[in-house]
Amino acid sequence: MRSASAKRDGLTEEMIDEGIENFRESDKFTESEKIALEYSELMQFEPEKIDGAFYARLQELYSDEEIVELGAFIGFNVGYHTFFRTLDFYPMFSPDGHLVSQEESRRIYGDRPTSHLRGAMARATGEGESEIESGSE
Amino acid sequence: MPFIEPLPEDRIDQAGFGKLLKRSRDIQAPDELFVRILAHAPGYAKALHGAMHMAHAEGNVDHKLKEIIRVQLSRNAEDTYFTNLRSEKAKKEGLTEERIEAGCGDFENDPGFTDAEKWALRYAWLMYREPKKLNAEFYGEGKKHFSEAQIMELGGFIAIHYGMQVFMRTLRAFPMHDPEGNPISQEESEKTYGSSVGGRKK
Amino acid sequence: MSNITMLDLDYLAKTKLGPFVKKCLKHRAPDPAFHAIQGHNEDLSKAMYIAWGTVFSTGAVDHKLKEIIRVQLSRAADCNY
């Protein structure tokens, strides 16, 4: 699933991958964007590291309104993605914007969530060679 | 104090906030601290608390069972705030602290829980510990005890509450009242409840 | 096949979730599968959709940053949706 409005605002799959896989070293993100991505990563994997010092760093770059917005957004996603994963269902839209069956969606997106650049788009459009990723990135 | 302080009531000017405060004060899980922290982001308290409250206090799955699950989840999230809150609605319906402890402990071997209740408690227990075990077979077992609507009610309830517990955990907040219902400061609350998330101090 | 039955979008269009399904079809986030799987409880699905829409699409933080975070967390959870 991808936000149509984020795409319209210029977000590319490359930027998504960069933000997930390489944000710390990347020159494509500002300091405030990097700490937001770190906040998310820590809340998912190491929430004990989100302490007073971390919040102080956040407060240098974000208002309390923005921090609460980010924290609640991240928390909601942490809770929901795990729940949804257990239901084993797929988007109804293909990466190129067509409504597809669950079987077709599974075929396009693969068994594990990865970048759409790694095969999903090609499998959706039937163009070019695609490597079927099954659990590996 | 929590790392993000709750807004004073007189500084919150958001549509419907009065109703949120009343609902929080009535059920006390969460208490008003939560909505006053969320109030920093306009609209967030109403939207999130609305969904949380509906999932927790309404629907077709027993509220007392959901309350036990809520506390169980909060211990897994290691959140000092939600773990020490207790639903006034569940108390009025007869839920005791002993029953909560039983549901957070060895519920699988406890004859006090029905097979359906055990499945629901197991669902919550596994969701953020071993989610891979929540497979087709697991859901198939659940469908012997609950309708799909009830399972989705439970799942949505678990998801949104756990997510907010994870967030609140990072803020190091505590309830605004002691176990007897008296208002206390955050410092007093931390002394009263302690920093660990095991059984509630008596 | 999903572990909970996904409801038909044509059926949902006739329920109180109809306007929300329409929004999903237009904006694609959330994808309409959100209601197809949660629509067993119409009121709760609506409340969760409103909560989701509020935290994702409103506020001062850049929406593109939130989208990166959303995908990051979905991969961390192995969520195919």
Describe the structure in your own words:
The complex is a heterotrimer of chains A (137), B (202) and C (81). Chain A is built from seven helices and no strands. Chain A is mainly α. Chain A folds into two domains: 4-87, no CATH class; 90-126, no CATH class. The longest helix of chain A is centred in the middle third of the chain and has 24 residues, at 64-87. Chain A starts with a helix and ends in a 12-residue tail after the last helix. Residues 129-137 of chain A have low confidence and may be disordered. Chain B has 202 residues and is mainly alpha-helical. Chain B has a domain at 61-192: AhpD-like (Up-down Bundle), CATH 1.20.1290. Helices cover 55% and strands 0% of the residues of chain B. Chain B has helices at 17-27, 32-38, 44-57, 63-77, 88-92, 97-104, 115-127, 136-142, 148-171, 186-193. By secondary structure, chain C is mainly alpha-helical. Classes of the chains: A mainly alpha (137), B mainly alpha (202), C mainly alpha (81). Chains in contact: A-B, A-C, B-C. At the A-C interface, α1, α2, α3, α5 and α6 of A face α3, α4 and α5 of C.
SSE blueprint:
The complex is a heterotrimer of chains A (137), B (202) and C (81).
Chain A: H1 4-8, H2 13-21, H3 31-45, H4 52-61, H5 64-87, H6 102-109, H7 116-125
Chain B: H1 17-27, H2 32-38, H3 44-57, H4 63-77, H5 88-92, H6 97-104, H7 115-127, H8 136-142, H9 148-171, H10 186-193
Helix pairs in contact in B: 2-3, 3-9, 4-6, 4-7, 4-9, 7-9
Chain C: H1 9-13, H2 18-27, H3 33-38, H4 42-57, H5 63-76
User: How many helices of chain B?
Assistant: 10
Beta fraction of the residues of chain C? under 5%
Regions with little confidence, pLDDT below 50 for 5+ residues of chain C: none
C-alpha end-to-end distance of chain C: 13 Å
Q: What is the overall shape of chain C? A: globular
Number of helices of chain C: 5
Largest sheet of chain C: none
Average pLDDT score of chain B: 95
Q: What multimeric state do the chains show?
A: heterotrimer
Radius of gyration of chain B: 17 Å
- Element string of chain C (H = helix, E = strand): HHHHH
Q: Find the count of extended strands of chain B (DSSP E, 2+ residues).
A: 0
Global outline of chain B: globular
